[in-house]
Write a structure and sequence with these properties.
70% helix; globular; mainly alpha
């Protein structure tokens, strides 16, 4: 590998952020996790599902053939929630960060083993890996307050604090990019030229109206699925946009355009396919 290639990789992953950027990211990320998985308690009812639905997935297929009891799962879940709050405040982060990742991965795998979880959750849990094993508590944390002398000698190394954020950015860029690739691999050009997207709108209108009360009242997707050609154009724009998302990681100029479109895209999914990101 040439020196220029190494330099390009260094610029992609190890430049651009400092310890305060990483600390702010830590606080926002773990606060969001604590709200959606602690307050809403999405996973708490998982182990009261019938055992007939259990099919061990991933690493659980190796060492856990039967589901654990509800009380045991609840204990693991509550420890994980506690670790989220430890991570928010940056307390004993060198220990609580890895614990948070390990338990979070186990809980997510439990969900998959019950067929209880959608694909939208996995990028969130994958993003735990770089942040939990980074030095995200080197600023704005209780660790700093407890041991000021130690942290005063830590240099604000740009590379050390950039790679976790950049890795998370890459994960989310790949989420959209892989979605576009998947559509082309499994559906081909017919995903665009057929009624696939239109059928998604119709399905949401008929079956998911009780999942998203806001969107079902507005009934925006009803207008869309009445215009077949418009659905084809939207399908093309969806695939092109998803494939272009990887460009946001490699180009800041592209990122300034793509990131706002991502938010608009998610609003579109919310109102047309009734995917409720709020609950």
């Amino acid at each position: 590998m040439s020196l220029s290639s190494i330099k390009k990789i260094e610029n992609l992953f190890f430049v651009g952020y400092n310890k305060y950027d990483l600390a702010i990211y830590r606080i926002i990320y773990f606060c969001t996790m604590a709200y959606f998985f602690g307050y809403v308690k999405y996973f708490v009812g998982m182990n009261v599902l019938p055992q007939e639905l259990w099919e061990p997935n991933g690493i659980l297929s190796i060492f856990q053939q039967t589901p654990i009891s509800h009380d045991a799962f609840l204990l693991i879940f509550n420890i994980w929630i506690a670790s989220l709050f430890f991570c928010i405040f940056g307390l004993f982060y060198k220990w609580t960060g890895p614990i948070c990742f390990i338990l979070g991965s186990y809980i997510a795998n439990q969900g998959h083993s019950y067929g209880y979880q959608t694909h939208t959750f996995m990028p969130v849990f994958l993003a735990l890996l770089p942040i939990c094993f980074s030095n995200a508590s080197d600023a704005l944390s209780l660790d700093v307050l407890i041991n000021k002398k130690k942290f005063n000698f830590i240099k604000n190394d740009e590379a050390e604090y950039s790679w976790p954020i950049r890795t998370v950015q890459l994960i989310f860029c790949l989420v959209f990019f892989s979605a576009g690739i998947s559509k082309l691999i499994h559906g081909g050009i017919e995903w665009i030229t057929s009624d696939t997207l239109r059928n998604y709108f119709i399905r949401a209108h008929l079956f998911y109206f009780d999942v998203n009360s806001i969107a079902s009242q507005l009934r925006i997707n009803e207008w869309f699925y009445q215009h077949e050609r418009l659905c084809h154009i939207m399908a093309l724009m969806t695939v092109v946009f998803e494939l272009a998302c990887i460009g946001a990681f490699f180009s800041k100029r592209l990122g300034k355009w793509i990131i706002p479109i991502v938010f608009l895209f998610q609003f579109g999914v919310f109102f047309t396919m009734y995917v409720n990101f709020i609950h």
